[in-house]
Q: What sequence folds into this?
């Protein structure tokens, strides 16, 4: 557990996320001093608990992303568990989730309901393609958004095939953008007294980090390709 001594000391984050994009976001919030309470599925927990390698039966992957967090197992389809969840939610400043759009709505926790019951709550949602639009219900993985976002087409050798970046930058970038949104919302709440909903799309984030590749396309119409390295490797 962190010592809650950073700039976010006193902020309570209710974390419904799993695997990478969401846990990366809440990991940073925890590192900044927030108290993060992670809700996991009974029996199985976060999917990444089963990812190797393992250190004394504990997933190194899971531990690296969930350090400094508290954890509770709740089934949000169970009435008694929902009561416990709502007690925690009533004290939370931030709710973070990375389910497919509409999942929390089905469980009775739509934004329309939450903002009326908890007007100061900041609700952050990270998904593959955002909460609206024709692709919203599709699942997304890192390689999918790297490819669709154009990152793979500007990576690798100029005469080679599109290449995945060696780290899960699709998830990580979206996690960081979500963290930025949450911090901005916390600052705004100090002025307005009201929470807000944050909608982060992994695909949008990939396009956002293409920087001058986008500028080159719109200036000359040429499809961006990998740069030839002028600096010896």
A:
């Amino acid at each position: 557990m962190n010592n809650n001594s950073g700039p976010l000391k006193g902020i309570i984050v209710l974390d419904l996320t799993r695997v990478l994009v969401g846990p990366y976001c809440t990991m940073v919030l925890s590192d900044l001093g927030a108290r993060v309470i992670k809700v996991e599925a009974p029996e199985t927990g976060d999917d990444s608990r089963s990812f190797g390698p393992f250190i004394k039966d504990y997933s190194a992957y899971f531990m690296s992303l969930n350090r400094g967090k508290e954890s509770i197992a709740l089934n949000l389809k169970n009435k008694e568990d929902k009561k416990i969840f709502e007690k925690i939610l009533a004290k939370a400043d931030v709710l973070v989730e990375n389910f497919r759009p509409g999942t929390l709505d089905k469980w009775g926790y739509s934004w329309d309901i939450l903002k009326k019951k908890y007007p100061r709550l900041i609700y952050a949602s990270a998904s593959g393609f955002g909460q609206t639009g024709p692709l919203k219900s599709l699942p997304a993985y890192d390689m999918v958004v790297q490819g669709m976002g154009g990152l793979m087409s500007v990576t690798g050798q100029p005469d080679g095939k599109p290449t995945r970046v060696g780290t899960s930058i699709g998830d990580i970038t979206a996690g960081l953008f979500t963290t930025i949104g949450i911090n901005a919302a916390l600052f705004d709440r100090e002025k307005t007294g009201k929470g807000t909903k944050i909608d982060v799309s992994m695909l949008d984030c990939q396009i956002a980090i293409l920087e001058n590749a986008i500028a080159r396309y719109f200036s000359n119409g040429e499809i961006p390709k990998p740069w030839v390295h002028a600096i010896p490797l």
About this structure: The chain has a mean pLDDT of 94.
